[in-house]
Design brief:
By secondary structure, the protein is α/β, with parallel strands linked by helices. The chain contains 13 helices and twelve strands. Helix 1 links the parallel strand 1 and strand 2. Helix 1 packs parallel to helix 12. Bound molecules: beta-D-ribofuranose (BDR) and calcium ion (CA). The site of calcium ion has 8 residues, from loops.
Amino acid sequence: MTTIRAIIDTDPGIDDAVAILFALASPVFVILGITTVAGNIGITTTTRNAGRLLALAGRQDVPVFAGAAGPLACKGFDVAEIHGSDGLGGVAFPAPLAEPGGDAVAWLAARFMVEPAGTVDLLTLGPLTNLARLVTDHPAAARRIRRVIAMGGAVLDKGNIGPRSEFNMAADPEAADIVFGAGLPVILIPLDVTRKVRASQPYCDRLQASGKTGAVASAALIRAYFQNTTVSGPGSESRPLHDPCVMLLAEDPSLFTLEPMGLSVDLGPTRDAGALTPDATRPVIHVAMEVDGARALDLLAARLTA
Ligand code: BDR
Ligand code: CA
């Protein structure tokens, strides 16, 4: 089996938590560390949540480093109404087993300089603030990243913050602009496809019935997401699993169809700050525009319940 050596940059976050539990459960991933960012909720809580998830999985070997407490330039906001006041929907987790290290960006820079170039993926599940700082302050380290796989944005689909803007991009548009302009090997997974990877209550039953720690916790997290979000009409019987798509693509790229494109980022003052527009003058990145949702859900369940 080919293994994937990766660092997770995240703002847990209910769907971040499911993504992290998946990566920790899958034998394909070697997780070198977790860096945190303010996003769904403040940095103290996202950092503590990373530690709580690792404690649940019994993974003292994975270090956590606290990153940006806010966006590069704009005013931050959180979505605690979706993720709960503890960021994890009120689901019970053990306390972190270790104190987090400081300065995620300094750690990322040092780690990417130590690792052979082009061997470690950066999997980003939140606003791109830490990566943008790495690009700006430590460009040689950023150039050594094998692949950035990022959840964020909406290309043809509608946004979830403004009419066209998605949360991770809206939370730090300037950071997204730096990352998409840097010429890095980026794969972006927008709402266009994450909305097609949807968990239903029977799917949660399937996870829970396995009795496996990560699967039972994931079922509880997704059920909390059901409780915190009101949806009517088509799709109301399921919820999208945005961030797990990053790990799913890393592990099995054949689940997704990628399209090369450049993207410009709306840096204006409206609710569409962070909105993405295809732009042939920008560096080419790869954007996931199709997904086999059923197969993606099967892989997620297979790893969590093994
Ligand atoms: C993204 O925003 C966050 O609320 C989720 O964790 C995910 O990363 C979806 O738009
Ligand atoms: Ca997230």
